[in-house]
C-alpha cells in the first residue's frame, strides 16, 4: 500500500511542479531596483528642498526619514503602497517606507479587535523580529568594534 501512495505523491508533485509558474528573476530584480531607487530619489529630493530652504544637512536627514515614514504609512493606509509593492517587490521593502508599511499593515488588519488587543499588540508582528535582530546584531558588532579598538588600536 505504501508503494501505491508513493507513486500518487510523486505524480502529484510532478503535476504541481509543472503547474507552478517560473519566477522571472531578472525582471523582478530590475523592477525592485527601479522602484527602490525611485523611493530613494524621492527622499533625496526632499532633502535637497530642505537644505535649499536653510535646514542644516544633519537635521534634514532626520526630517526626511520622518517624511518618508509618514508617506509610507499614508500610502499603506489608503491601499496604494500594496500596489506599489506588488509591482516593485523587494524594492519597497528595503527603504524606510517598507518599515513603515510593516508597522501599519498589521495594525490596520487587527483594528477591529480594538486598540489594545488589536492595533497595539499586532502592529509589531512583522517589524518586531527585524527590530530585535537588528538591535541585537548592532550591539554585537559594537562590542566587537570596541574590543578591536581597545586591544589592537
Automatic annotation (TrEMBL):
A Pfam family of this chain: SpoVAC_SpoVAEB
Coiled coil (residue ranges): none
Family annotation (InterPro entries): Spore_V_AC, SpoVA
NCBIfam families: spore_V_AC
Name this protein carries in UniProt: Stage V sporulation protein AC
Species name: Clostridium gasigenes
Amino acid at each position: 500500500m505504501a508503494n501505491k501512495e508513493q507513486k500518487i505523491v510523486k505524480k502529484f508533485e510532478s503535476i504541481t511542479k509543472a503547474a507552478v509558474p517560473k519566477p522571472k528573476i531578472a525582471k523582478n530584480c530590475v523592477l525592485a531596483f527601479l522602484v527602490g531607487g525611485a523611493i530613494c530619489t524621492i527622499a533625496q529630493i526632499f532633502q535637497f528642498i530642505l537644505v535649499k530652504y536653510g535646514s542644516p544637512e544633519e537635521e534634514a536627514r532626520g526630517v526626511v526619514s520622518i517624511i518618508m515614514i509618514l508617506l509610507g504609512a499614508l500610502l499603506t493606509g489608503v491601499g496604494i503602497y500594496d500596489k506599489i509593492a506588488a509591482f516593485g517587490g523587494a524594492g519597497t521593502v528595503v527603504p524606510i517606507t517598507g518599515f513603515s508599511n510593516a508597522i501599519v499593515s498589521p495594525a490596520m488588519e487587527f483594528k477591529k479587535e480594538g486598540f489594545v488587543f488589536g492595533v497595539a499588540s499586532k502592529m509589531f508582528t512583522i517589524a518586531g523580529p527585524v527590530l530585535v535582530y537588528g538591535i541585537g546584531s548592532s550591539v554585537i558588532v559594537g562590542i566587537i568594534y570596541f574590543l578591536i579598538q581597545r586591544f589592537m588600536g
